[in-house]
């Protein structure tokens, strides 16, 4: 019987979809982070539960040929790049196998699972950074990312997944906070002003949006702050202030005000100019997104006179990119965030795409109302949050009787659950395309084509 602090030797048999290696010892399963399949390692047991244990790799006795040295100094403490110790080809292999596994176990589908498509860039691909603020041991402001399963901030000077300029901007903001002697937010006490730094980057225009999230209504010496940022970073064209005074883990509050510059930044995605506000959903990997959306367009297989519905449309990115290819088709977009709907409307006007209508509302309620109005789109495109679609949303989609449903999902497990349910209601999954949007992490995106039986 294994006990805490035992040290054993074992071989890693597999890697989970959370990036942990799986070993067995005396018929007990042990989960170990930062290891690869086939490696023989020395494990220290750190936690013992009824049916399994957690361990820490003390020594790699026989390393995998796919093991590489992580490029990030805080790789183990941060936990964001949980697969950075594996060469990229190995990461892709794991992710494709994870998709195949969940589709077999959960979806129980006969759909063809296509080989995974790699991200065009493996580093500096993220166009968004959200950094919690904290104080170091000397009382200086720092920002970074939360350590795994905690809210302890690991200071980050330069995240190699994000534009290098992000690190320069966050450093300037921390210096400003120290100079004006402002306090950072403390989750325990609920006191302190500065909560998060939120940066967005538009790759095609190189514009940057900077949003400060604060526990209050104003920042000290506002004009000084604007001067510091604008004189040092010409790419910053929008400085915004978001008010979040709630005791919550949600980053953005309900109120955002423009401090300086433009209310949005503009990127070009699949040939469509996209306005992005702080609240708008926008995929973090632009080059990967263009692969993702072109796959969705191919699976949709629209004609010029077809009606198609884009649920969870955000700023209209998927729907408008497809409508640009079929300008005589008719698009209905649904999104619950008002700012994103306004962005979508402006994006359509700028692209001179007139055959579209955007509805601000909950996808579950809106899909039910559209079904009751006897709206019958040929294709429904659905890009839900990580939790997937609700049962009512799936039922309403089926009631509209589209010829095809194209599902885009950032969680293959919830996608598999929804595929299983849709197949029980008269749709058959045809193809499933994994796309790696998040190199060096455990996450993978999928696009699914379903046809009416």
What features would you describe in this structure?
The structure is a single chain. The protein is of the alpha/beta class and 453 residues long. 26% of the residues lie in helices and 32% in strands. It contains 10 helices and 23 strands. α2 (88-107) packs parallel to α10 and α8 runs parallel beside α9 (391-399). It is globular, with a radius of gyration of 24 Å.
Topology (elements, then pairings):
Layout: E1 7-11, E2 14-15, E3 20-25, E4 28-33, E5 40-48, E6 52-62, H1 75-78, H2 88-107, E7 112-113, E8 128-135, E9 141-146, E10 153-155, H3 164-179, E11 194-202, E12 207-214, H4 222-232, E13 236-243, E14 255-261, E15 265-269, E16 272-276, H5 286-300, E17 307-311, H6 317-325, E18 330-335, H7 338-350, E19 356-360, H8 363-372, E20 379-382, H9 391-399, E21 404-409, H10 412-424, E22 427-435, E23 445-452
Parallel strand pairs: 4-6, 7-22, 12-13, 17-18, 17-20, 18-19, 20-21
Antiparallel strand pairs: 1-5, 2-3, 3-4, 5-6, 8-9, 8-11, 9-10, 11-12, 13-14, 15-16, 21-23, 22-23
Helix pairs in contact: 2-10, 8-9
Concise account of the structure shown:
The protein contains 10 helices and 23 strands. The protein has 453 residues and is of the alpha/beta class.
Can you summarize the main beta sheet? 8 strands, mixed
Whole-number mean pLDDT: 95
Q: Tell me, briefly, the overall form.
A: globular
Q: Work out the strand percent.
A: 25-35%
Give Rg in angstroms. Answer: 24 Å
Decide which structural class fits the backbone.
alpha/beta
Give the end-to-end Cα distance, rounded to a whole number of Å.
Answer: 52 Å
Q: Could you name the ranges where pLDDT drops below 50 across 5 or more consecutive residues?
A: none
The count of strands amounts to 23
Proportion of helical residues: 25-40%
Provide the spatial order of strands within the biggest beta sheet. 7-22-23-21-20-17-18-19
Q: Count the helices. How many? A: 10
